[in-house]
Each structure stands twice: as C-alpha cells, then as structure tokens.
Amino acid sequence: MPFRAALAAALPPHRIVDDPDVIAAYSNDQAAWAPAGKAALLVRPADAEEVRRVVELCFVHRVPVVARGAGTGLSGGANAVDECVVLSLEGMNRVLEIDTAEQLAVVQPGVVNDDLRAAVAEHGLWYPPDPASSPWSTLGGNAATNAGGVCCLKYGVTRDYVLGLQVVTGEGKLVRLGRRTRKGVAGYDLTALMIGSEGTLGVITELTVRLLPLPRKPHTIVGAFGSLVAAGEAVAEVARRGLTPDALELVDRYCLQAVDEWKNMGLADLGDVLLLARSSTEEAAIQDAFDAAGAVFSTYSTDEEEAEALFAARRLAYPALERLGPVLTEDVCVPRALVPEMLARIERHGQAHGVHVANIAHAGDGNLHPLIIAEDPAKAQIVFDLIIDDCLDLGGTVTGEHGVGLLKMRGMHTELGQDVLAMHRAVKAALDPAGILNPGKVI
Amino acid sequence: MPFRAALAAALPPHRIVDDPDVIAAYSNDQAAWAPAGKAALLVRPADAEEVRRVVELCFVHRVPVVARGAGTGLSGGANAVDECVVLSLEGMNRVLEIDTAEQLAVVQPGVVNDDLRAAVAEHGLWYPPDPASSPWSTLGGNAATNAGGVCCLKYGVTRDYVLGLQVVTGEGKLVRLGRRTRKGVAGYDLTALMIGSEGTLGVITELTVRLLPLPRKPHTIVGAFGSLVAAGEAVAEVARRGLTPDALELVDRYCLQAVDEWKNMGLADLGDVLLLARSSTEEAAIQDAFDAAGAVFSTYSTDEEEAEALFAARRLAYPALERLGPVLTEDVCVPRALVPEMLARIERHGQAHGVHVANIAHAGDGNLHPLIIAEDPAKAQIVFDLIIDDCLDLGGTVTGEHGVGLLKMRGMHTELGQDVLAMHRAVKAALDPAGILNPGKVI
Question: What are the residues whose beta carbons fall under 8 Å from the beta carbon of A113, sequence distance 6 or more?
C-alpha cells in the first residue's frame, strides 16, 4: 500500500490535512530567517498511539517526519523539510495528572507552558521554566529545545524538571524513558539525551515533570545604566560578589523604545539600559552592586504591580521589535564575568556594519539575545556570524537556550569539533536508523 | 607489536603494574556480593593523554578496559572483567581551577569529593552532592555512577552539577563535552549521557562542576518512632503537607545499635527508628508532621555539634554494619507517599525468610537502602530480589543512586523492557563500537 493510503487506513480521516495553505501555515517556526521546505502532509494525532502509527509508517516508507508544538521556536528547528509529514502535537493538550505528594505532573506534549503553571498553582505548586513564549509554547516543544527563561538563573532549565518521557522512537516504537521517582540511575540517561534533541531522536508523546512549591514573591531590583557595557559591568560585579539573584535580566534602549511605542509605558525615561533583578534575600546587596558599577538610578520594591510591569516589558521586547520588521535573533551564552566584553563586541560589530542591534539578555546567566534589525539581510548575517565567533572566542556556547535548528548548525559544528560531531552522528544513527526524524536539523 | 609491549612503549614504565596482588586489590569495589574477573594489568595514568593512549591501544587490540576511582561503589560497576586492563584514575587528583565569579571548578577525576568541598569552601562555595562515601570517593566515580547523597533531596544529584566533561571515547579519542557556561543547548546532551554510564560509554578524564554559595547552617529536626512503618508514615506526611526539608534521613534500630557498639554514642536510647531532617525555614512544621504521624519523641536544635553527631551516625551506619559481617546493600527508590508501604513489605520479606534487614534511607527522596545481613547468602539473595520486584510494583526504580553495575542488571532489564534496552545497546554500540569499555556492566 502506498504511504498516503496506509496513513489513511491507520488514522481517522480528519487527522490528516492535505490543504496546502494549512500545511504551509504549519511549515515554519518563528525563525523568519531559516529556510523551510515543502511538506507533503500535516497530521494532527490525538494520542500517543496515533503518533506511533504515523512514525512507524514513516519509518517503513522512509518519509521524513517533523514534529512541532506551537511553532514558537527561534532557530528553525520545527521548519518543514521537503516531502515530510508535519506532525502537530498541539491537539494533545491534556494535563493528565498532578501528584501533590510527589510534586510532579504528567502532561501531554501539547499542553501550553502557562496552562500547566496555572493548573499546578491551584495546588500551591510551580513549574519553574518560563521561556518568554510561555503563553503560547508547549511543554513538548520546551522539552525538545530544552527551553530556558527568566527563572533559570536560580531554578534551572527544562532539562532539570523532566523526570521522564514517553517517546516514539525512530523505528515507530512507543517507549517510556526515565522515571516518576525523585532519583534514579537505572540505565543511561536517555531522557536527558532526548531533551534538546529537537525531534531528531524521538517524538515526545508525554512528559512527567517535577514541580516545586510556589515561592513567595521576591523583591524586584531595578538599575538604570548609561551604556550597555556599564550594565554588563554590573552583571559581572554581581557575579564577582557571589550574589545569587533569582533572575537578572537586561533590556536596552532599542527594546524599551519599541515597547513604549507599542504599549506607551514610558520605560525609556528610566535610562538607556535597564537591569531587572529578583531576590528575596539580597535586594540591598544587589542594588549596591548596581551602584558600584555606575548605575545612574537604582531602586528596589515589593510593589507587585510595578514589578510585574517591568518584567512584562522584558517579555514584550521581542514581539515589540518584531512589529518594526524582520528580526534576526541571536542566542549566545558566555561566562558571566565576560558579559561586558561580549556586549562591547556586539556593539562594535553593529556599528562597523551599520546594523542596528537591540539587546535583551538573561544577563545573570551570561545568556545574551542580540536582536539584529535586518534592514540589509546580508549585513545582518555578517553580524550574526561575528557574534557567534566572538562567543566561542570568549569560551561561550553558540546557543544558550534557543537551540541549534537550522540557524546555529555552522556555529555548533565549530563549537563541538569533528570528533564530538561524529559521536552525535553515531547516536543519531543508533536511535533513528532510517534518518527520518527531523532530518537536516541539529547535525 | 603485541599489546603489552605497545603499552610499555606508550607509557612511562612505573605506570604499569603487573604484580598480581596489587592487581587483585584493584579488581573489585565495595559490593562484596558481585563477582570480579581476573584482570591482566593495572595501569595508573598520570594525565588525560596517558588515558587516551591506553584506551586507544585497548581499542586496537580489543582489550577490555575497566576504569575506577576509589572503588567505593556498591554495585560491582568497577569490578574487573577477565583479561582486562584496570585503569585507576586515583592519581589524577588535582583541582585545576576554582572560578569564583562563574561559580565552577575544574577537577581531575581522582579528586576526592570531600577534598573538593574543602577547597571550594575556602572561597565561600559549595559542591552539594554528598554520597556517604564522600571522605574517600572520587569525583570521577561520583559522575560515572551519578552519585546522590543526603543533600540531594533539596539540591539534586551529581548530574545536576556537572557542566562539562573531558572524556576518552571507546575509540581512544580525547574529547570535550558540555560547556563552562551556565546554560547551553549546542547539540545532544552527551554530558548527561556519560553521567551514570559507569565507564561503559567513555572514560572521564576531567570534570567541570557547578558550585553554589555555602548555605547557612540549617536546623536539625529529630523524630523518634516506634516502628519503621510509623517513620515511613511521617515521611509520607511531610510530602503530603508539601514540606521541603533540605534532607530527610531514616536510620533504624539495627543501624543505631551497630553504631553504638562501635562508637558508643547511645543512639538507640532515642528510639527504635530515627528520622533526621534539616531545614532553615520549616523546622516547626516538620516537627509537627513528625508528631502528627506518631513520633514518640521529637525536637529541633541549632546545636551544631549535636546535629553533626546525628548525621555522622547516619554516615557511620553502613561501615558499622559491615563490621558485623557481609552486607548485601539494596538501593531502591519509590514514590514518597509509598515509603511506609515499601518499608512494611521489606520488613515482611525479612521476617518471612528469617533474614535480618537493617534500614537506612534518604527517606525524603523515597530512596531506601535496606541492608541485608547475609547470614545465609541464598536467603539474602531471595530477599534482595523480592525488594526489587516490590519497588517496581510500586512504580519505583531498582537503583536510586548506587548504579546498576552487576547487582542490578536483572532488575534494570525488568524495569526498562526490551525496547528501551535495545536503545541502550544501540547507544553503547554507537559510542563504544569495539565493546571494550567495562563490558558486561549495566547492559
């Protein structure tokens, strides 16, 4: 039986979408700069068994399969490849279980990050990883990309919260990896191997995630600085003093102005570059570090509304800039003490090539997101590549949290080197012997 | 050139040990019950390049290589296999770097856990994973087994602290995995894959570990209970109330008496079963949960000396019991709410088969260590296997922190199932194509 007919026989008919317009809408993520292929079909499975059947048929017929959640990725990892099946998991969106004693939740991959937070908050629990896309992005996508966020500085990234996965393998087998218990070392950590593998080693059909008790609201510390590099110095000073804020975010003038133009918040009046920190215990010490590094203004408050507004502005920075035109989003991570040096280099590259570069950053992690305003795509690409080279030069990594996808393949190859890439290829071949899972991504 | 001659040509002569008595002393870990093969040679490399040369020659000549640290493992993971090279990494014991701003340390694999703690404490920093073997066990061994400990309840296990590794692959290549930055998603998480793989996927030659600021001393909460199951109920009650102690340990009468006999501490006068908890914020609430579950005595104190003595007793329990004869050490992990049920089953199995079972436990994690006093090895093995079956029946895992090694292979096979085992074998073949790395362990 040909593939299309076999698929029709294996699934209820309304699961399969042939409409080219709908397929096209599901064929790329938010990385405007990454190329997308022309998918053959869109499939919207309703449960893990349907996912298994699709992948098994793709394995038998050697058809590529690209899994996706909400498509909020920024590296092209979920972009279609030619003649593939796009497998949209957004319909599998049920929270299956919240276990308050064990502090875990079991969810389908299409559950939206903020929906899980809201569900567990009713039980006094908290799921920490909070990518800026949390109102839209799904847990499956968060796990596939090992998403980070604002809270990661203190609380860690997605990988730190996934205890176990149900996965469909490259040969169409439905398996359980990991565990429900707090600890466990039975066998290789294939759960961690799947996290961040961007759908190239398996398709996630269920997640068991660890939860924490809802923390008390921390204080918010604000510092305004006269330049990017001054703000970077404050980040390095916080690190040098051994301070550990829960979050430490940077937003520059471009971003503040873009948010102001959209939401009329008057943020740019505060200063050229803002640092926003959260802490329950070190607010005075963090303010002191900001001041020592040359803050033109600093304060801290427990006014929740004011604090929420500032962090909301941080979240709005990316969509606000996107309103103004195509944005090429960088995502590099450097040692924290080198944040000022990296910010200085980014600024120089922008100036040298006549390209506007806005900056938001999970600065406390050393995770910078230069946003390259792409008036001239060729120039933007040059600056993008120079930033990658510089982050490697400073001992950093080419992607802190957005993933490799298509945009960071060159950088990752340089970072890892041939021997480690060969290990990646061997692992990929071991778990996806037919090479059908999101081919051409990551490696 | 034959293997022995090639090895002699590749290393300074005193690195290679042929003395059968010395080789025998390096041919097993602390799992008295696990069989050990007869090694051909012991090699004590001085640096990563020497490790690389040894493994490369083993690859070319198809000679098995078993890497080991201090040999404190409890599952036979470091036991020699016939005709192997035992590769002792204990001589590679230098702390290479402590970076206070980035809060990380770079160490050789033979650095002893407590030595790293002492070195970083001078900088106000802390390496949390604290297996009971911390005065002797090495960071390389801790990583190879993904060691846990008392602090893991709040602070996580070894895997949560290893940012990057230098590893010699199964083909004798020296590679770097992971990163120095706080975050990073460039490629598959091969670092996590190596952690807990017990030397079957690579030989660790350097570790970059994340550090935390030294925390303030917490309070110690003590509860004494009339039975194992009552203490287990208190653990479940702590979980049900959403309390999050830093540590929550259980020590039963057998262990208390064994420590008393050795160190004359008078612990058994406190009660039949002790729970020891640590917390900086919830000491009254934890004591209340202990009382509600029927504690016959409870208190909390900040008397550091008294608290240290109690936790020292917990650490001494295993060596104290070992003094009295061979001990078959279990290591299972169950959901926390099922700790009383699991403890009741363990007690019943011991009684039914006329075998003494002592219990220590990282109870707050659900990680139990029944210690089977092996008067009759055959009976002890029956109880060992029954406990494994029960932990799986309760949704647990057959090894919480000691690793699979030799003792847990049967249990792990049951836990994982054929399809997941096939994934393990594929990954093993991908990264160790000649099958020379610690063959016959884990899978």
Answer: A127, A129, A130, A131, A133, A134, A135, A137, A138, A139, A142
Q: Among A110, A108, A113, A98, which Cα is nearest to A211's?
A: A98
Domains of chain B: 3-88 (3.30.43.10), 95-213 (3.30.465.10), 219-393 (3.40.462.10)
Closest residue in chain A to residue B334, using alpha carbons only: A181
What residue in A sits closest to B155 (Cα-Cα)?
Answer: A155
Could you give the CA distance from residue B284 to residue B290 in angstroms, rounded to a whole number?
A: 10
SS3 B351: helix
Q: Which residue has the higher pLDDT, A203 or B132?
A: A203
For residues B17 and B61, the answer to whether their CB atoms sit within 8 Å is no
Chosen for mutation from B161, B188, B246, B281 (greatest number of chain A CBs closer than 10 Å) is B188
* Strand pairing class (B327-329; A162-168): unpaired
Q: Which residue of A has its CA nearest to B245?
A: A213
ipTM tops the 0.85 cut: yes
Mean pLDDT taken over chain B: 95
- Whether residue A171 is predicted with pLDDT greater than 90 in this model: the reply is yes
Strand duo B85-88 + B41-43: pairing:
parallel
The pLDDT assigned to B283 comes to: 94
Q: What element of type H or E holds A368?
A: strand A367-373
CB contact under 8 A, B185 and A402: yes
Average of pLDDT values for A390-405? Answer: 96
- Which residues of chain B are modeled with pLDDT < 70? none
Asked if A431 and B431 come within 8 Å (Cβ–Cβ), the reply is: no
Q: How far lies A278's CA from each of B60, B112, B168, B215, B281, in Å?
A: 55, 36, 41, 19, 20
B131 φ, ψ to 5°?
-55, 155
pLDDT of residue B324: 82
Contact A299/A222 with Cβ under 8 angstroms?
yes
Place of tokens 């290393």: B11
* Mean pLDDT of the region A385-402: 97
Option in B189, B430, B443 nearest A192 (CB): B189
Interface touch A185/B442, C-beta < 8 Å = no
**Could you tell me which of B150, B148, B120, B116 has the C-alpha nearest to residue B135?**
B116
Is residue A93 over pLDDT 80? Answer: yes
Query: What's the rounded Cα separation, in Å, for the pair A227 and A70?
Result: 36
Which pLDDT belongs to residue B318? 86
- A302, pLDDT greater than 80: no
Q: A–B: how many Cβ contacts below 8 A?
A: 254
Distance from B367 to chain A by nearest Cα, in Å? 7
In this complex, which of A124, A157, A395 lies closest to B183 when CB atoms are compared?
A: A157
Beta bridge mates, A248: A277
CA–CA distances in Å: residue A12 to residues A59, B28, B289, B316, B392: 20, 57, 52, 62, 36
- Per-residue model confidence (pLDDT) at position B231: 96
CA angle A304, A309, A315 (to 5 degrees): 125
Is B192 in Cβ contact with A424 (below 8 Å)? Answer: no
